[in-house]
Amino acid sequence: MDLSKAAAPLAPLKPLFAQTPVGATRRVRPAWLRLVLLVVVFLVVTSVAAGVRAVAGDNPVLSLLGGGLVVVGALAAYAAVVRALEQRPVTELDPARAWPDLRFATLTGLGLFAATFVLIVLCGGYDTEGGVSVGGPITVFGLMAGVAVTEELLFRGVVFRLVEELTGTKGALAVSAVLFGGLHLVNPEATVWGALAIAVEGGLMLGAAYAATRSLWVPIGLHLGWNYALSGIFGVTVSGDDGAPAGLLHGALTGPEAITGGAFGPEASVFAILVCAVPTVLYLRAAGRRGRVVARGHRAP
């Protein structure tokens, strides 16, 4: 297959991701104003993505196509608005880093949940309800690809990055983690404990990953790998949302909620918090060594 021909429809988007200097045509607006404008843009993007997912439903082909549409549209929207507002190349979405960062981070996300899953299984907290889905993993991949990209662009690309300009890295970690956890309170089986767990294991880990690498491809990959392992492979509830399409397996969690996460799913398990604490600490230490933990009023290198 000629990949250059396959990618031809995306050629008009290449200038958005070019890493060459951008000719300044206007002054850069204050960080708080850029934050507000980008949040509004991504609320619209998120609404459109939800509509696409609703149309796709449980159809594997439509879900994969819809997920691809959401991914491309969200990335293009982010790059276009950032270039226009900030008059700079979008270095956090450097195309040269896309494949290596996504590959490594997605495998890492899969591995992190696999470690959590093993601990839950060893405590007798998981069983299957029979049957293996063929189309389920494809459907879930399309869904989770769109979710990972839109949420990471919003929470790490917009909230973390711009709050960091206003408060410094530590403030950005706290604010983005709290908001990320709070978002999951709207899910059907949400609990306060589950939202707090997501804020710690997801919000802090993904924020630390971005701080250490300054590449959005890394938190996108981690998010995708983790969510896909949960729903696409082991078939358990993701963040209290039990309405997701069935994955490869149809899993059932039994036992103490501290071990299994209960109705919220394994992300509310103490094992998930402990497992995700390891890369969080490693990423934060790496950010410090690389000089990427900045104070208020400074921009990260």
What is the strand tally?
Answer: 2
- Distance linking N and C termini: 39 Å
Reported for the largest beta sheet, the result is: 2 strands, antiparallel
Structural class: mainly alpha
Radius of gyration over alpha carbons? 19 Å
**Overall morphology:** globular
Describe the fold and architecture.
- This protein has 301 residues and is mainly α.
- 65% of the residues lie in helices and 4% in strands.
- It is built from ten helices and two strands, in the order H-H-H-H-E-H-H-H-H-E-H-H.
- The protein has helices spanning 3-6, 31-56, 60-86, 95-122, 136-167, 169-183, 192-213, 217-233, 257-260, 270-289, and strands at 126-132, 249-253.
- Strands 1-2 form a two-stranded antiparallel sheet.
- The model is unreliable at 1-7 (pLDDT under 50).
Question: What's the layout of helices and strands?
Answer:
Elements: H1 3-6, H2 31-56, H3 60-86, H4 95-122, E1 126-132, H5 136-167, H6 169-183, H7 192-213, H8 217-233, E2 249-253, H9 257-260, H10 270-289
Antiparallel strand pairs: 1-2
Helix pairs in contact: 2-3, 2-5, 3-5, 4-8, 4-10, 5-6, 5-8, 6-7, 7-8, 7-10
Features of the shown structure:
mainly alpha, 2 strands, 4% strand, globular, two-stranded antiparallel sheet, single chain, disordered N terminus, 301 residues, 10 helices
